[in-house]
Amino acid sequence: ERNLERVEELMPFKDTQTVTWIRVVGLHRVEQIEKLGELFGIHPLTLEDILNVHQRPKIEFFEDYIFVVMRTLSYEKGMKSEQISLVLGRNFLISFQERKSDIFKPVETRLRNNKGSIRKKGADYLLYSFLDIVVDSYFVLLETLGEVIDTLEDEVLSEPYPHIVKDIHLLKRDLNYAFKVFWTTRDEMNRLLREDSSLIRKRSLIYYRDVYDHIIRVIDITETMRDTVSGLLDVYFSSVSNRMNEIMKVLTIIATVFIPLTFIAGVYGMNFKYMPELEWKYGYPAVLLFMLLIGMGLLFFFRRKRWL
Amino acid sequence: ERNLERVEELMPFKDTQTVTWIRVVGLHRVEQIEKLGELFGIHPLTLEDILNVHQRPKIEFFEDYIFVVMRTLSYEKGMKSEQISLVLGRNFLISFQERKSDIFKPVETRLRNNKGSIRKKGADYLLYSFLDIVVDSYFVLLETLGEVIDTLEDEVLSEPYPHIVKDIHLLKRDLNYAFKVFWTTRDEMNRLLREDSSLIRKRSLIYYRDVYDHIIRVIDITETMRDTVSGLLDVYFSSVSNRMNEIMKVLTIIATVFIPLTFIAGVYGMNFKYMPELEWKYGYPAVLLFMLLIGMGLLFFFRRKRWL
Amino acid sequence: ERNLERVEELMPFKDTQTVTWIRVVGLHRVEQIEKLGELFGIHPLTLEDILNVHQRPKIEFFEDYIFVVMRTLSYEKGMKSEQISLVLGRNFLISFQERKSDIFKPVETRLRNNKGSIRKKGADYLLYSFLDIVVDSYFVLLETLGEVIDTLEDEVLSEPYPHIVKDIHLLKRDLNYAFKVFWTTRDEMNRLLREDSSLIRKRSLIYYRDVYDHIIRVIDITETMRDTVSGLLDVYFSSVSNRMNEIMKVLTIIATVFIPLTFIAGVYGMNFKYMPELEWKYGYPAVLLFMLLIGMGLLFFFRRKRWL
Amino acid sequence: ERNLERVEELMPFKDTQTVTWIRVVGLHRVEQIEKLGELFGIHPLTLEDILNVHQRPKIEFFEDYIFVVMRTLSYEKGMKSEQISLVLGRNFLISFQERKSDIFKPVETRLRNNKGSIRKKGADYLLYSFLDIVVDSYFVLLETLGEVIDTLEDEVLSEPYPHIVKDIHLLKRDLNYAFKVFWTTRDEMNRLLREDSSLIRKRSLIYYRDVYDHIIRVIDITETMRDTVSGLLDVYFSSVSNRMNEIMKVLTIIATVFIPLTFIAGVYGMNFKYMPELEWKYGYPAVLLFMLLIGMGLLFFFRRKRWL
Amino acid sequence: ERNLERVEELMPFKDTQTVTWIRVVGLHRVEQIEKLGELFGIHPLTLEDILNVHQRPKIEFFEDYIFVVMRTLSYEKGMKSEQISLVLGRNFLISFQERKSDIFKPVETRLRNNKGSIRKKGADYLLYSFLDIVVDSYFVLLETLGEVIDTLEDEVLSEPYPHIVKDIHLLKRDLNYAFKVFWTTRDEMNRLLREDSSLIRKRSLIYYRDVYDHIIRVIDITETMRDTVSGLLDVYFSSVSNRMNEIMKVLTIIATVFIPLTFIAGVYGMNFKYMPELEWKYGYPAVLLFMLLIGMGLLFFFRRKRWL
Q1: Taking CB atoms and an 8 Å cutoff, what residues of chain A touch B266?
Q2: D/E interface, count of CB pairs below 8 Å
Q3: D114-165, pLDDT tens digit by residue?
Q4: ipTM over 0.85
Q5: Could you give the C-alpha distances from D72 to D15, D81, D82, D108, D209, in angstroms and in order?
Q6: Is E247 in contact with D249 (Cβ distance < 8 A)?
Q7: Is the distance from CB of C111 to CB of C119 less than 8 angstroms?
């Protein structure tokens, strides 16, 4: 285990019998990477794909190596995705990452401690470990997303703020993006399982099938999440319209109770000379009582109609 | 038929000619299960799938055994699902469950009573019995769900409570989950029918095809339910908007009838010195009559417009 | 042509050279049917499917016979469906129905009159006649459904009653059910066309292809109907919202015309000591005129805005 | 080129070396058509399909002939469709139509003028000419539909009339119908391209592929139209709701400006003995000014909120 | 590198060993192009496709050449598309365009400077360069569209103008059109990769696979954009309904606060002879206070209900 600065130092590792893991972190030193590519016989188009970190997940079979692109995903106020390129040769595995991340820590640790069966099991098992780690990291992502969705759901039901629709759509877009990454990974894994490459031994296939199984479960969960998020919009619109209805109902009731009463008051506010009621001794309390009765009647009517 | 505590006691049953059903209930005693796996030659990844009870339904063909994962579903304030793992060997069948449930009671009973053809027909027929029981339990689930949907439908039409939209979405999610389980089961059953494994005899295939037929019918019913639940939202929104319209109509009518009347009252409430009507002897009753006529006219107009 | 009560009486017909049509109506005499099954070598699972009348349409190929399940559909306040099971042997055809219906009348008549080519053309042609009759009955169903949809459409456009949304959804569900029956029938017919069974002669295949053609046309029509019914909901919601808008507009206009006028009346109803207008001789008619002008102005404004 | 009344007169044309085009217009003379079918060896089921003019587009391969059903479409207050049946034999082509239409005019003209390569190129080229003409007529239809859609779009945006939703749905249904015809034609053309029939020579295939290309373009355009028409509904609902909002805003503003003012007038209309303001000399103008200020303030508030 | 006016001048280039790129700009000189077609053995139907510039992207394999149709897309107040037809022969490549555009500038430059490997690598590599340039130009288009979508999104959220729904639908239509072009291009590229043509050498295939990869990424981005634009409509409708609710709330509050107050004022405006309150010394301020309390109470009620 060494930190090397120049590609030339890798020369001796090329043809050893043991498995070598070369880890390249940072893709700005293009020249060094091109030298590395030349040394291990990597096609220029593969190198291009490694350097342009916007590839979809894919697995390409070349004569002397298999080129694997995976994408890690993390969610922190928006989906973030990083590309991990892996080149599997006869007895070496080269990994390329833009930034140093902790995702491969477990493999590192196991290799260092010399415990675990990784060291013995060949390069294809090492590749499996990496794929497995990336796919398992998707479960962590989905947990985060699940919490985000739960929070959003609570807010939609209790107190929807104005731009929540946009937030829902952003989440939807992120989920769609993740879904696409998962689905493409699944497709490519499937192809790897059926392709007949000498670089991956028969008895390793069962491990790859396990990864495939996991990615399918990831897709299942994501699909359920997409349904939920789609449903959130319906819930939101119904929640908003419920509040609106609540408000409208109060308006209706207050207005419809007082409008007739105000009319009655208006009638007795007219200045006609001959209005017998106005002369009555108990005209005023009688009218007040009459108004009360009308108001009560209307409220009773509304209650019976179950509008209250 | 015995209750064993330690795996070693199973030794003698491994190579008998008769069919042995080993039933493992509770998955917390990992070590014992691993020993069992070793004894019957089960691959570590299979054991992992048995212990991690979030697998999708699946059927995997190994050299010496077939590994089947089924999921039972039950609905009680939300969908609950339990994993049942089955390992079919040459002349043994091992079932793994987290909790002891009554689902396999019928097979038990038949085995105990020694009646029924299960004992004679070999391990693959026993496996069929289990699959059949699980798929038949789906019909029970669908009946429960059908009742839940009917209740919800009634509530949507009579008196939609505020969070019914969320309940509909939860039900939809549960249905989607069940649908996915059914669909995957169907896919795997289909694969089992076409796969050529020596562990399942030709003449047993017709039974498996029958299970396949049942699962397809389960899927059909579930699809209809999903349509119904989707429709519920439309019905809900239309029901809410109907109530809203009803309320708005009353507001409109009361308001539009009284607003002009109030205006007239307002006119005769003005304090102009020279307002001839005010001096008339029958001005007051005339105005009241006039108001009545206007009110009636408006009501008549609304009725003719069919708003009432 | 005879009416038999006991299965044993069928013995002599089993091995004749001529084609025999055995018609079983009513499925409650399970024992007799099981005897029949034994006599003609029908598999127990097939008998189970015959007795459990909730099968999907299907065609199963056995060594000695072909088992066909068809479903007749009729619509009368909801979709009704009956199962017709057919067993085609070398020179016999057995049909199973729950209730006696007139659907096979035409075949009966033709057989009785000895005219038509049915008697000569073998059992597979007889089976074709039955399939043809069932599929043709679907066209009748679709005509009925077409009328139901037309009625619903008229009601949606003229006078939507409150629960019409539910009716639309029920119709949609029925259509989906019929669609599923048609589609499955199509699938199974397609399989029959490609399957190579000695029981169906090459030269009969062209007739089966004709049935297949008809079922595809049935599916086409059903799809169009589903589109129409889906559209009905949109039309309904737009129709409701149109009525609502109409009502709101009247409210707006009446309210907005009278609210300012009432305000003016209110102003001159104030009791200030010094209000010069009140003393004017023509103050009252002047105010009335002013109110009229304002009212006319508002109406003119609304008309110009095309709200009236 | 002759107009024949009786089928017998066709006898001599059956076995000539040159290509013969027999054109049958009007399908009511069933007997003559059956005679024709017998003469040219056409299967009874084919004749049935020719006479029943509700077939889907299809191409059927028989031993001695190819049977082609095409549908012409025209739009004039609803979609109209006519069936054109074509029977391609070794050196004859028979076309069947219900009514005489001008659609095959170009071929007629070219045949009459003896110019163009149609006469020399054999019956399969003649068939191609017919298919080409029918598919090209679809482009004309799409142009008409395009104009209908444009008109509808303008009306939706400027002045939506009440039943426009129904018109949109009718158009949608027509488009779906056309789409289905196009799609089926495409499928059948595709099958023709892959089928290996001796009646269509290899070197003619490139022409058929050209027709196939055209039908795909037709489908593309139709899909775009379907999207547009679907979008029309959204535009309509948003347009209606925009108008509604406009109206509601005016109501809100007029009502909310005048309601407080009316209240103030009401206050000073009260008949309390001790109301000091009433005695003030400038109480009346002061109140008017106060009302003006409040009205202006509210309008200013609305403008700042961008509601005006 | 020469500008030629007449096709005859191309004679000598037909059979050279080196690769010749013939660039035809402007398709109005039909005769010259037909001569060119004759000279290089291009089928009349291909020429027709070149001249009719509404083809879908496609790749057709002929015996002596491959015919490729690509579409460039640009967005400037609506999608614009131009057809580029390419004919790849053994050692020549002919490109046809309607208008002179700068899209092939990079290839031109590289050819002129004699640097770059284009000149050496054969006609199939030249074709690849052209495909690559066209597909890369799609990324530029998508960037433009991305900005248009962002602008629209901002407008939807801040200040939706009336016809924004139509703009969204136009954008959607444009995106669908682009999507169709991309998808068809992908399909045809895929076919090219699997087709076995002697005109494209094995070792060039990896470059074509790279173009295929790019077009898939283009499709991915477009799909995300389509989701976003679809979401825009939801956001718009929710935004409009939010504003509407805001307005309605203010109306409700002002109206419901003042309607009861106006009623009270109306009561004390009645002219009954015996109304004791009117005689009280502090009746007027008491009523004002009472009104104030009621108004405050209602506001407090609204605030507690979170309507304010």
Answers
A1: 266, 269
A2: 119
A3: 655 666 778 888 899 899 999 999 999 999 999 999 998 888 877 777 778 8
A4: no
A5: 31, 5, 5, 18, 20
A6: yes
A7: yes
